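Dear Dr. L.,

I hope this message finds you well. Following up on our conversation about the binding site, I have prepared a predicted three-dimensional model of the protein together with magnesium ion. For your records, I am including the exact sequence and ligand specification that went into the calculation, followed by the structure tokens. Please feel free to forward this to your student if that is useful.
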Amino acid sequence: MSRNRIIAAIVVAAGRGERASGAGDPTPKQYRSIGGVPVLARTLRNMLAVPGMNHLAVVIAPEHAERLQRLAIDDPRVLPPVHGGPTRQESVRAGLAALAPLRPDYVLIQDAARPFSDAALSQRVIAALADHDGALPAMPVTDTLKRSLDGTSIVATEDRHTLFAAQTPQGFRFAQILSAHLRAANLPREFTDDAAIAEWAGLSVRLVPGAGSNFKITRPEDFARAERLLAGDNLMETRIGTGFDVHPFEPGTSVWLGGVEIPHTAKLKGHSDADVGLHALTDALLGAIGEGDIGTHFPPTDMQWRGMASAHFLRHAAALVKQRHGRIVNLDLTLVCEAPRIGPHVAAMCASIAEACGISASRVAVKATTSEKLGFTGREEGIVAMASASVELPREE
Ligand code: CTP
Ligand code: MG
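The resulting structure of the complex is given below.
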């Protein structure tokens, strides 16, 4: 590009949204929320995020002024609200008139009701303006199309390979589309998009690939579709991890288990506080997110972990889950020992584990069993802990 083009956008939001108005909700579609964010706020945000965007005119119905204000759009590139007219064509013309003093080179004209256009799509439109007067995103038609004059009897079957569904934002060289719109204003016919006006004016208009997600909110069910699209964006996947640990007894007076100190006739031997339960849980969490094991994060050769409370290790693993924008769904711990008796301490252990992981105690289970006097646990030489963790992480493709 020889010089920086001035790029402006018009977002037309002056419609009544009659086809989308569902039972009971009087809010026009462009002011209703999807995923907690109003449709118009999303559309404005997307247009302002288009690289090189210099000015934006938002065209509204005069009676919606307060609704627009409540969106609290605070960006110096946004012009004072422009009042639209009774047809989309008139609303666009009002937006063009408002931008004219700024003498933009290009203008992107966008429906407020398309909250999912991405910057790449707008960039395709802008790129096409290097050799064309206008450009619009479009999708090939997939259904076979029937022509009917009365909605029942068929007059013809169209060749769908030559048909494309027009989307917005549509881009134009500003001076040309302004002039075309001014001339078209005097015609008895009404145009439903700006490309049609450009075509009528003899401008060269090019199709660029649109996007399926760039649909227009038109009917009540489109809100559910939009919510599904957003949910799909943040889809989580479930991960499972397991942990296993053993610590032998040595002479002492208490053991640490599940973050709780329990009086006993021996203690557990180990580098830290030897809390075999928390070690197994830490490994289960690290396993679920594929981040090695407790030894890789806290090498036993490192003196600083000597006598350390094992809650520190568990807290670290839980923090790694959070760092990955994940969440712990549940933790399950089984302790295998003849003694001490675990039952009376289960609630305290669950609370302590939940606290270390920043989750509710209802997501933590601690169970205990003996090994029927068999093996090293049966001979009371040590304690075994087994744990599993279920974690949700953002889906990886
Ligand atoms: N629009 C506008 N001024 C109008 C009519 C429409 O600015 N007089 C805008 C709408 O706000 C919308 C876009 O043009 O963002 C596309 O129009 P459409 O989907 O038809 O929206 P509405 O006209 O609001 O809906 P309906 O036709 O169902 O009443
Ligand atoms: Mg309409």
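In brief: The longest strand covers residues 236-251.

With kind regards,
A. P.
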